[in-house]
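Field: COMPLEX_INPUT
Field: COMPONENT_COUNT = two
Field: RESIDUE_TOTAL = 823
Field: MODE = joint
Values follow.
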Amino acid sequence: MKALSQRRRHPLAAFALLLMALLVTGGIYAAASTANQAQAQTTTFTADDVEEGSKLFSANCASCHGLGATGSNAAPSLIGVGAASVDFQVGTGRMPMQMDGPQAQAKPVQFTDEQIGQLAAYVASLGAGPSIPSEEILDPSEGDASNGGELFRVNCAMCHNAAAAGGALTQGKFAPSIDDTSERHIYEAMVTGPQNMPVFNDANISPEDKQDIIAFLDTIKEQGSPGGADLGSLGPVSEGLFIWVAGLGVVIAFTVWLTSRSS
Amino acid sequence: MSSSTATQSYVPKTRVGKVTDYVDSRVGGSGIIKEFGRKIFPDHWTFMFGEVALYTFIILLLTGTFLTFFYDPSMAETHYEGSYLPLRGVEMSVAYASSLDISFDIRGGLFMRQIHHWAALLFAASVAVHMLRVFFTGAFRRPREFNWVVGCTLVILSLAAGFTGYSLPDDLLSGNGLRIIDGVMKALPVVGTYLSFFLFGGEFPGTMIIGRLYVLHILLIPAVILLMIGVHLFMVVLHKHAQFPGPGRTNTNVVGYPVGPVYAAKAGGFFFIVFGVLAAIAAAFTINPIWNYGPYDPSPVSAGTQPDWYIGWVDGALRLMPGTIGNFDFEFMIPFPWGVNALSLNVLVPALVPATIVFALMFTWPWIEAWVTKDKREHHLLNRPRNAPTRTAVGVAGVVFYCVLWAAASSDLIATHFLVSLNDVTYWLRFLVFFGPVIAFMVTRRIALALQRKDREIALHGRETGRIVRLPHGEFIEVHEPVDDYKRYKLVSFDSPEVMVPTADANGKVSLLDKVHGRASRFFFEDRVAPVTPKELAASHGDHHDEIAGAKDRESIASH
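Field: COMPLEX_OUTPUT
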């Protein structure tokens, strides 16, 4: 304790304290924010599911989307959006929407998988729409990663970045990173076009090509970064920032050391 | 020559001595070492950025040579058959395929590619910081004006070297960069399309450009850089290194260590430090992961497409330029005898104007400043930036201008990472690119003057120690501690030019040039904090009642 009190006026004491505070708050935040985890689910609906989904919908969604999902001034009609849309929007936490903004943001999922299935069953019962994809079409081992890569670069990379790290759109909208998105949600996003994303229907990109894209994303996620830490895969901006701050910083530290003895 | 007769009369006794003497009597190395080895260099950490630039350039030559062994600049089409799975079978150019082979199938290739690229970024960064050091310390003044110009040329050459190298992998990212160059060229009226066809050997992208850039990148540009480095270093030796003012340091001497052995060892060691730092970075952090971007194809553009940092500011200018304002579209149709040609100012202005302003000011600044100060003396003592407030303010304004454009090149990442609207980022940066430099100029000049005032205060009255002492009669004073002579020397020994008022000639007329000069002089030196004169310093010694009183008090406190 004596050593600590002697060093409390050390020039670096403030930095040490700051670092400690940052580590503590960061640690608590990291622990708190990983409390919710997604789980797998089934895709077969029964009449009971529709019935339960209807109740859930009235209680949680109808205030914006209207009773019977017919829409209101605040939110669009959901008739014909299909089970895939509900599974994506509710399954990634985007719905119920946390706040008004340029687009609905992902957040911890609010419903159990069973409840999401019931909601999806109810919305699917209102009108025909894209259904939740089958397990077979989502299997990345069946896809061709290099074909998927080409399709991804032509169709997706202009918003989502060539390494799927995400990118900016206008007026605060953005294309999110797809690093941690499950295969099912990637597929559903393509067929339903959530937020500002265009719809890539089966005439546009066939289900097999979608599977290839999923295989590509799966491959680049699995392989990691072959050349070392990827600095966020953000391209030359993060590289430039790194060389100016870390590279030049270390070099300056050495120049100070080398010239410290003479003057 | 007298030295050669001296060496001939010398008879070496040992084997090594004989060999050395044999060589020396033919190449005269001892004379050079005697002369150059005794060259004195002053020591300051800010003097080492030029060295960093030189060492990174050597590292670039070494690693670049390795890369040329395996790189093939051909734009012929091929199907990738290497070991990177997500690109297997994809149609691409041989240049991109060979870059991928360097990355995945050649032992040590990825490391070499990464160290080469990181070294290129550090090269440009150290050149930039070196230029800033020279500018802010006034090291460009006579006799070093030409060396400043050589340095400016090296900046442009390093940008050219970087950009040509950035394009070589022929991936999607670099192809997008080339497309912008092509677009800028085509925006030039009349000659634009001809120039573009000339450079690309036909319509963009053609099949020639990579091979041509390769020749520029590995032959012409490094050769010119090497030549310029030679000229640059020759002039450094000729002029001797400038030094910061200090006790015993004058305009006619250099205080420091000789090259041999101290600097030879330090500089040699520093080379390996820089090499080691770059190697560590290259081993641990990926740069330009070309496999992510895929082969170049004119249709896709990935989000997060930016040039390397040193070209970023030009990209930023292009991003900030509005395509149209209302109905005004910045495009003019110029009728020529052969037809109508378009002049696209919304491309040409951002692509060329900021760079022209920055480089024109950079190249001519030594003469602009010399004209304002009318100072024809040689300067081997550097300025502290605060002691040249207007110059420092101009420099900071330039840095802010550059940085706003630089930030604009990453406007999309600013938007996503700080959760703001991309449009708002663009509007703010448009405002800042015009007003930022003005605000920076005013604030910097005020800060510099304030620091001068603080220096003056410290030189005259000493440092405030924060010790409050109560005198026997109840008065509280703060004890001021006088600074030592070395520190005081730094605080008082600088030139502070005053405003030059234009004077009338024999006919009683003031020429227009003199009037302009007078105005410029007033702009530069009107706000001025006079350095402490010896007289003021002597007077302030009699004025140290509070210190003396404090000392007396301390004695009395100690005795109780």
